[in-house]
Amino acid sequence: MALDPQVQAILTAVKAAGIPEPWQVSLGEARAGYQARVARVDVKDEPIHQVADRLIPGPERPIPIRVYRPRATKPGETLGVLLWFHGGGFVIGNLDTHDSACRRLSKEADVVVVSVDYRLAPESRFPAAVDDCMAALRWVALQGAAELDIDPGRLAVGGDSAGGNLAAVCALLARDEGFPRIAHQLLIYPCVAPEPETASHHRFAEGHLLTRRTLTWFYKQYLRSTRDTQDFRFAPLVADDLSGLPPAFVLVAGYDPLRDEGVQYATRLVEAGNDCTLVNMAGMVHGFYLMLGAVDAASEAIRLSGAAVSRALAAHRGE
To answer: What are phi and psi of 280, to 5 degrees?
Structure first.
């Protein structure tokens, strides 16, 4: 399938503007630049019933979270929860870059979304982000009913790119630890492989927003050494056992370097006996999920994601 015309227009504009890649500028400039680029293609002022920021306990420092409520609830009614981990290569994302997507997801899935501002690299290298995300997951499961007025029995994890990696890792760790029980994992073009060596990594190495050089730079910032590439907490694809995991919705983009490893992970989930839905948005590039103000398919992707989360959590209502 050809590139979506709306995506092609963005790629043309990026090339004409000569926007530097993250590895070409300072860390502060890379983070500010990412936020500015997202803002240009994001939807503005996405309405939602309620948004609140707060801090929760973390392993090294308090973890900022942002809580989205889609609507007022009836007396005695509680909503399920989606714990969301933002993308950005473990280096440049934050709560604000993914704010509109979380607002839209909350409404589409009719759940409370809790977005987690985990520690970033290179200031905090692997496995700091994993530790923060697991701490947030345990806190929501244990304290969510009292602190957030949610039903922790209907708990999903999700994220895009690096956040999809963290969601997949949390699902594995929660399975191994026996707590908490996760009802669904929403994996949006996740990075899950130990090395960026699939065919799609080489085919789309340049010219499709996320380049091979940027991706390898992200991993260099995040990992302590090459030994970490064989740790399933970085690369879920190297896990020996993928059985007994929550139902998954895996979304990939047709022109994304990460496409093939996302497909491989979905395939392995199914082979291990898990329920997994794989959707390929064929004309899309990496990062399109955040382009709600410029790419129609972004809205469709979030609609599909929200529906998958809603169905999964509905199956656990009353447990």
So the answer is: -110, 110
